[in-house]
Amino acid sequence: MSRGLYAYAITRDRRIDLAGPWLIGHRGLALVVAEVETERFAGLEFDEPAEDSPLAVLARYHDAVVRAVFQHEPVLPLRFGTVLDGVDAALRLLGARHEEASAWLDRVEGRREWGVRVRAAAPAPVDLDALSGTAYLAMRRQRLDAADAVRRGAASVHRALTRRSAESTCRDLAGDVLLEGAYLVDVENEEDFHAEIDRLTRELGLRAEITGPWPPYSFTKVEFADA
Amino acid sequence: MPEHSAASLVDLLDRVVHRGAVVRGDVVIALAGVELIRLDLRLLLIGIGGDR
Known about the structure:
The structure holds two protein chains of two kinds. Chain A is an alpha+beta fold. Helices cover 37% and strands 27% of the residues of chain A. In chain A, strand 2 and strand 3 form a beta hairpin. In chain A, helix 4 (133-163) runs antiparallel to helix 5. Chain B is an alpha+beta fold. Chain B has a domain at 28-52. The longest helix of chain B is centred in the C-terminal third of the chain and has 13 residues, at 34-46. Residues 39-52 of chain B have low confidence and may be disordered.
Protein backbone atom coordinates (compact mmCIF):
# COMPACT_ATOMS: atom_id res chain seq x y z
CA MET A 1 0.00 0.00 0.00
CA SER A 2 1.62 3.31 -0.99
CA ARG A 3 1.00 6.42 1.04
CA GLY A 4 1.42 10.09 0.32
CA LEU A 5 0.42 13.51 1.59
CA TYR A 6 -2.79 14.70 0.00
CA ALA A 7 -2.53 18.49 -0.34
CA TYR A 8 -5.81 20.45 -0.22
CA ALA A 9 -4.73 24.05 -0.26
CA ILE A 10 -2.07 26.61 0.44
CA THR A 11 -2.92 29.10 3.15
CA ARG A 12 -1.23 31.27 5.76
CA ASP A 13 0.45 29.52 8.64
CA ARG A 14 -2.05 30.00 11.46
CA ARG A 15 -3.37 27.72 14.14
CA ILE A 16 -6.45 26.11 12.57
CA ASP A 17 -8.03 22.98 14.03
CA LEU A 18 -9.25 20.81 11.17
CA ALA A 19 -10.02 17.54 12.96
CA GLY A 20 -7.91 15.39 10.69
CA PRO A 21 -5.92 17.31 8.11
CA TRP A 22 -3.06 19.40 9.45
CA LEU A 23 -0.84 22.28 8.37
CA ILE A 24 2.79 22.10 7.32
CA GLY A 25 4.12 25.59 7.84
CA HIS A 26 7.06 27.32 6.24
CA ARG A 27 7.92 31.05 6.47
CA GLY A 28 4.38 32.18 7.10
CA LEU A 29 2.73 29.92 4.52
CA ALA A 30 1.25 26.50 5.06
CA LEU A 31 0.10 23.49 3.09
CA VAL A 32 -3.05 21.81 4.33
CA VAL A 33 -2.39 18.08 4.10
CA ALA A 34 -3.56 14.67 5.21
CA GLU A 35 -1.97 11.26 4.83
CA VAL A 36 -3.70 9.15 2.18
CA GLU A 37 -3.42 5.76 0.60
CA THR A 38 -3.00 6.47 -3.08
CA GLU A 39 -5.08 3.39 -3.92
CA ARG A 40 -8.18 5.33 -2.87
CA PHE A 41 -7.83 7.28 -6.09
CA ALA A 42 -7.54 4.30 -8.40
CA GLY A 43 -10.41 3.51 -10.72
CA LEU A 44 -12.62 6.49 -9.87
CA GLU A 45 -15.74 6.66 -11.97
CA PHE A 46 -15.90 10.07 -13.61
CA ASP A 47 -18.53 9.45 -16.24
CA GLU A 48 -21.70 10.89 -14.73
CA PRO A 49 -20.63 10.08 -11.16
CA ALA A 50 -23.51 9.32 -8.79
CA GLU A 51 -24.06 11.42 -5.67
CA ASP A 52 -22.64 8.62 -3.50
CA SER A 53 -19.83 7.57 -5.87
CA PRO A 54 -16.26 7.44 -4.52
CA LEU A 55 -15.34 10.47 -6.67
CA ALA A 56 -18.25 12.49 -5.28
CA VAL A 57 -17.38 11.51 -1.71
CA LEU A 58 -13.70 12.41 -2.16
CA ALA A 59 -14.51 15.68 -3.93
CA ARG A 60 -17.00 16.73 -1.24
CA TYR A 61 -14.46 15.98 1.46
CA HIS A 62 -11.81 17.96 -0.43
CA ASP A 63 -14.26 20.88 -0.63
CA ALA A 64 -15.14 20.56 3.08
CA VAL A 65 -11.47 20.79 4.09
CA VAL A 66 -10.83 23.77 1.80
CA ARG A 67 -13.92 25.51 3.21
CA ALA A 68 -12.91 24.81 6.81
CA VAL A 69 -9.62 26.64 6.17
CA PHE A 70 -11.38 29.32 4.13
CA GLN A 71 -13.52 30.21 7.16
CA HIS A 72 -10.41 31.46 8.90
CA GLU A 73 -7.81 32.35 6.31
CA PRO A 74 -7.50 33.04 2.58
CA VAL A 75 -6.95 29.84 0.60
CA LEU A 76 -5.35 28.85 -2.64
CA PRO A 77 -7.23 25.62 -3.41
CA LEU A 78 -5.15 22.91 -5.05
CA ARG A 79 -6.63 20.73 -7.72
CA PHE A 80 -8.23 17.44 -6.73
CA GLY A 81 -5.74 14.60 -6.55
CA THR A 82 -2.62 16.57 -5.61
CA VAL A 83 -0.55 14.11 -3.59
CA LEU A 84 2.92 15.04 -2.36
CA ASP A 85 5.85 12.80 -1.66
CA GLY A 86 6.07 13.53 2.07
CA VAL A 87 6.79 16.45 4.39
CA ASP A 88 10.12 17.28 2.74
CA ALA A 89 8.41 17.67 -0.61
CA ALA A 90 5.78 19.93 0.99
CA LEU A 91 8.49 22.14 2.50
CA ARG A 92 10.34 22.22 -0.81
CA LEU A 93 7.18 23.32 -2.62
CA LEU A 94 6.42 26.07 -0.08
CA GLY A 95 10.02 27.25 -0.17
CA ALA A 96 10.30 27.32 -3.95
CA ARG A 97 6.93 29.00 -4.52
CA HIS A 98 6.76 31.26 -1.49
CA GLU A 99 6.50 34.62 -3.21
CA GLU A 100 4.12 33.42 -5.88
CA ALA A 101 1.80 31.70 -3.40
CA SER A 102 1.86 34.72 -1.07
CA ALA A 103 0.88 37.02 -3.93
CA TRP A 104 -2.02 34.74 -4.86
CA LEU A 105 -3.24 34.64 -1.27
CA ASP A 106 -3.17 38.44 -1.13
CA ARG A 107 -5.13 38.55 -4.35
CA VAL A 108 -8.03 36.42 -3.08
CA GLU A 109 -8.05 37.66 0.52
CA GLY A 110 -11.37 39.06 1.72
CA ARG A 111 -13.16 37.78 -1.38
CA ARG A 112 -15.53 34.91 -2.10
CA GLU A 113 -16.59 33.26 -5.32
CA TRP A 114 -20.22 33.23 -6.50
CA GLY A 115 -21.60 31.22 -9.40
CA VAL A 116 -24.42 32.67 -11.51
CA ARG A 117 -26.26 30.66 -14.13
CA VAL A 118 -29.00 31.99 -16.37
CA ARG A 119 -31.05 29.67 -18.54
CA ALA A 120 -33.38 30.44 -21.38
CA ALA A 121 -37.02 29.98 -20.43
CA ALA A 122 -38.66 27.07 -22.22
CA PRO A 123 -41.19 28.42 -24.74
CA ALA A 124 -44.84 27.66 -24.08
CA PRO A 125 -46.12 24.72 -26.14
CA VAL A 126 -48.21 25.67 -29.16
CA ASP A 127 -50.79 23.65 -31.07
CA LEU A 128 -49.26 23.98 -34.54
CA ASP A 129 -52.32 22.53 -36.25
CA ALA A 130 -54.36 25.44 -34.99
CA LEU A 131 -52.02 28.02 -36.55
CA SER A 132 -52.27 29.49 -40.03
CA GLY A 133 -49.07 29.81 -42.07
CA THR A 134 -48.90 33.53 -41.42
CA ALA A 135 -49.55 33.12 -37.72
CA TYR A 136 -46.86 30.45 -37.57
CA LEU A 137 -44.29 32.73 -39.21
CA ALA A 138 -45.24 35.57 -36.91
CA MET A 139 -44.86 33.30 -33.90
CA ARG A 140 -41.44 32.13 -35.07
CA ARG A 141 -40.27 35.69 -35.63
CA GLN A 142 -41.53 36.70 -32.23
CA ARG A 143 -39.77 33.77 -30.57
CA LEU A 144 -36.48 34.50 -32.30
CA ASP A 145 -36.68 38.13 -31.20
CA ALA A 146 -37.48 37.05 -27.64
CA ALA A 147 -34.56 34.58 -27.59
CA ASP A 148 -32.26 37.30 -28.88
CA ALA A 149 -33.41 39.72 -26.20
CA VAL A 150 -32.82 37.11 -23.49
CA ARG A 151 -29.32 36.41 -24.80
CA ARG A 152 -28.51 40.11 -24.79
CA GLY A 153 -29.98 40.35 -21.29
CA ALA A 154 -27.73 37.54 -20.04
CA ALA A 155 -24.69 39.29 -21.52
CA SER A 156 -25.64 42.55 -19.82
CA VAL A 157 -26.02 40.69 -16.50
CA HIS A 158 -22.47 39.43 -16.92
CA ARG A 159 -21.15 42.92 -17.67
CA ALA A 160 -22.94 44.43 -14.69
CA LEU A 161 -21.75 41.72 -12.31
CA THR A 162 -18.20 41.95 -13.64
CA ARG A 163 -18.25 45.64 -12.69
CA ARG A 164 -19.21 44.68 -9.15
CA SER A 165 -16.56 42.00 -8.71
CA ALA A 166 -12.82 41.95 -8.35
CA GLU A 167 -12.54 39.30 -11.08
CA SER A 168 -14.94 37.34 -13.24
CA THR A 169 -14.83 34.41 -15.60
CA CYS A 170 -17.29 32.72 -17.95
CA ARG A 171 -17.61 29.04 -18.77
CA ASP A 172 -18.54 27.79 -22.20
CA LEU A 173 -22.25 27.65 -22.73
CA ALA A 174 -24.17 24.52 -23.57
CA GLY A 175 -27.81 23.65 -24.04
CA ASP A 176 -30.21 26.25 -22.70
CA VAL A 177 -27.58 27.98 -20.55
CA LEU A 178 -27.12 31.65 -21.49
CA LEU A 179 -24.72 32.64 -18.76
CA GLU A 180 -22.42 30.49 -16.66
CA GLY A 181 -20.36 33.02 -14.79
CA ALA A 182 -18.13 32.94 -11.73
CA TYR A 183 -17.43 36.14 -9.80
CA LEU A 184 -14.86 36.88 -7.15
CA VAL A 185 -16.52 39.44 -4.92
CA ASP A 186 -15.20 41.51 -2.03
CA VAL A 187 -17.11 40.45 1.06
CA GLU A 188 -18.12 44.05 1.75
CA ASN A 189 -19.57 44.32 -1.78
CA GLU A 190 -21.64 41.13 -1.63
CA GLU A 191 -24.85 42.88 -0.66
CA ASP A 192 -24.52 45.20 -3.61
CA PHE A 193 -23.62 42.30 -5.91
CA HIS A 194 -26.73 40.32 -4.96
CA ALA A 195 -28.96 43.38 -5.10
CA GLU A 196 -27.74 43.91 -8.66
CA ILE A 197 -28.62 40.32 -9.62
CA ASP A 198 -32.04 40.86 -8.07
CA ARG A 199 -32.63 44.11 -9.88
CA LEU A 200 -31.41 42.96 -13.30
CA THR A 201 -33.19 39.62 -13.33
CA ARG A 202 -36.45 41.33 -12.38
CA GLU A 203 -35.96 44.04 -14.97
CA LEU A 204 -35.05 41.58 -17.73
CA GLY A 205 -37.47 38.84 -16.72
CA LEU A 206 -34.67 36.30 -16.29
CA ARG A 207 -34.18 33.63 -13.69
CA ALA A 208 -30.75 33.26 -12.16
CA GLU A 209 -29.44 30.25 -10.27
CA ILE A 210 -26.84 31.29 -7.75
CA THR A 211 -24.29 29.08 -6.04
CA GLY A 212 -21.93 30.13 -3.33
CA PRO A 213 -20.17 31.40 -1.51
CA TRP A 214 -17.30 29.25 -2.75
CA PRO A 215 -13.62 29.39 -1.94
CA PRO A 216 -11.88 31.02 -4.93
CA TYR A 217 -11.63 27.79 -6.98
CA SER A 218 -12.20 29.51 -10.32
CA PHE A 219 -9.68 32.26 -9.65
CA THR A 220 -6.50 30.42 -8.79
CA LYS A 221 -5.38 29.55 -12.28
CA VAL A 222 -1.78 28.94 -11.42
CA GLU A 223 0.62 26.11 -12.02
CA PHE A 224 3.45 25.49 -9.58
CA ALA A 225 5.76 23.58 -11.85
CA ASP A 226 9.10 21.96 -11.08
CA ALA A 227 9.06 23.10 -7.49
CA MET B 1 -36.00 36.27 -8.83
CA PRO B 2 -32.58 34.78 -8.10
CA GLU B 3 -32.62 31.34 -6.59
CA HIS B 4 -30.03 30.25 -4.09
CA SER B 5 -29.81 26.63 -5.10
CA ALA B 6 -27.81 24.00 -3.31
CA ALA B 7 -24.63 23.45 -5.28
CA SER B 8 -25.01 20.44 -7.51
CA LEU B 9 -22.41 17.73 -7.84
CA VAL B 10 -21.61 19.10 -11.30
CA ASP B 11 -20.90 22.56 -9.85
CA LEU B 12 -18.73 20.99 -7.17
CA LEU B 13 -16.73 18.75 -9.50
CA ASP B 14 -16.31 21.58 -11.95
CA ARG B 15 -14.49 23.51 -9.24
CA VAL B 16 -12.75 20.86 -7.15
CA VAL B 17 -11.55 18.61 -9.97
CA HIS B 18 -11.30 21.01 -12.86
CA ARG B 19 -10.06 24.22 -11.22
CA GLY B 20 -7.63 25.14 -8.51
CA ALA B 21 -3.90 25.51 -8.55
CA VAL B 22 -1.91 22.73 -10.18
CA VAL B 23 1.31 21.39 -8.72
CA ARG B 24 3.75 19.64 -11.02
CA GLY B 25 7.26 18.37 -10.67
CA ASP B 26 9.01 15.76 -8.56
CA VAL B 27 7.34 16.82 -5.29
CA VAL B 28 4.13 15.24 -6.58
CA ILE B 29 3.19 11.60 -6.66
CA ALA B 30 1.43 10.75 -9.89
CA LEU B 31 -1.86 9.04 -9.17
CA ALA B 32 -2.76 6.35 -11.63
CA GLY B 33 -5.98 7.42 -13.23
CA VAL B 34 -6.24 10.96 -11.88
CA GLU B 35 -4.60 12.62 -14.89
CA LEU B 36 -6.96 10.59 -16.98
CA ILE B 37 -9.90 11.68 -14.87
CA ARG B 38 -8.91 15.30 -15.34
CA LEU B 39 -8.75 14.88 -19.06
CA ASP B 40 -11.99 13.00 -19.31
CA LEU B 41 -13.78 15.30 -16.91
CA ARG B 42 -12.65 18.16 -19.07
CA LEU B 43 -14.37 16.46 -21.98
CA LEU B 44 -17.44 15.79 -19.87
CA LEU B 45 -17.57 19.35 -18.63
CA ILE B 46 -17.30 20.85 -22.08
CA GLY B 47 -20.86 19.65 -22.42
CA ILE B 48 -21.77 21.44 -19.21
CA GLY B 49 -19.40 24.38 -19.35
CA GLY B 50 -15.62 24.23 -19.61
CA ASP B 51 -13.22 27.12 -19.87
CA ARG B 52 -14.07 29.74 -22.42
